[in-house]
Amino acid sequence: MVMPYLEGGTLEDMLNECILTLEEARIVLEQLTSALAYIHKLGILHRDIKPGNILFDGHGNLYLGDFGIATWLGEKPLHNGHVMGTAHYIAPELFDGFVDERSEVYSLGILLYELLTGSLPFDGPSDWKICLQHREARPVAPSLLNPSIPRPIEHVILRALEKDPRHRYYQTVEGLLHAFQNALEAPNFFGYLSTQRARYAPHAALLHKMKPRSAIRATSK
User: Fold this and answer.
1) Which of the following is catalytic: 48, 57, 66, 100?
2) How far apart are CA 173 and CA 36, in angstroms?
3) How far apart are CA 183 and CA 195, in angstroms?
4) Residue 111's closest CA among 187, 20, 197?
5) Integer Cα distance of 107 and 74 in angstroms
6) Rounded distance, CA 1 to CA 161, Å?
7) What are the structural domains, with CATH classification, of the chain?
8) Pairing of strands 54-56, 62-64
9) Cβ contact 56:63 at 8 Å
10) What is the pLDDT of residues 43-99, one digit of tens each?
11) 123: annotated active-site residue
12) Which of 93, 135, 170, 194 is 20 to 30 A from 207, comparing alpha carbons?
């Protein structure tokens, strides 16, 4: 399999410059949800959602890449007793040999946390210690790292990061997207946007081109 050269770089490249505004995070989430919902309908779980696997072309269209550890829905996530994936983004239920769409909701929650704070909710000196935090530690409230994050947005992120998948009331990635969109309608949203544009340099060159609901694109490297 081959993929085209994507001159827009990765979401990781963007985060290396500065965090995203709420509006920029919404655009990313809408396009990413479109791709994930498509593969979920085919019975496929990506299992490695992270900024380095999210790419853009020169027109701001999002591509979801690297299906190297993707599995069919219903498959066990353990391989020779080990969980495959990137430690910072792995849902805790994978360590119990279970994975479904709600595990992708958890990974999206990690991603949103990172997009809006510039930090990961769980980190440590080794993969094992990071994975242990996924199972046992509570994340620091995003607003403590970025006080401009509105309470409704924080609530959406933290609910996506519930340890028990049954308590993530967003049972699908579309459910998480709808909750995030609804939270943006809170009264302080537009005031937040204006202050964020002043505090953080926007990714104007690329994100201004991004379409909220572009065609679904999933690529494999």
Assistant:
1) 48
2) 7
3) 18
4) 20
5) 18
6) 33
7) 19-207 (1.10.510.10)
8) antiparallel
9) yes
10) 999 989 999 999 998 888 898 887 777 888 877 776 656 677 899 999 999 888 888
11) no
12) 170
d(CA 8, CA 206): 7
Alpha carbon distance 170, 156 (integer Å): 9
Helix or strand or coil: residue 137? Answer: coil
Q: Which residue ranges of the chain lie beneath pLDDT 50?
A: 189-190, 192, 194-202, 204, 212-217, 220-221
Q: Helix axis angle, 22-41 relative to 189-199, nearest 10°?
A: 110
DSSP 142-195: HHHH-TTS-HHHHHHHHHHT-SSGGG-S--SHHHHHHHHHHHTTSTTHHHHHHH
Helix count and strand count (H, E) for the chain: 9, 6
Q: What is the DSSP letter of 78?
A: E
What's the predicted TM-score (pTM) here?
0.83
Q: How far apart are CA 37 and CA 43, in angstroms?
A: 10
- For residue 136 the two structure tokens come to 């046992």
Tokens matching residue 50: 């992270």
Decide: residue 82, CB within 10 A, 0-12 exposed, 13-18 middle, 19+ buried: exposed
Q: Give the pLDDT of residue 41.
A: 94
Task: Let me know how long the chain is.
Answer: 221
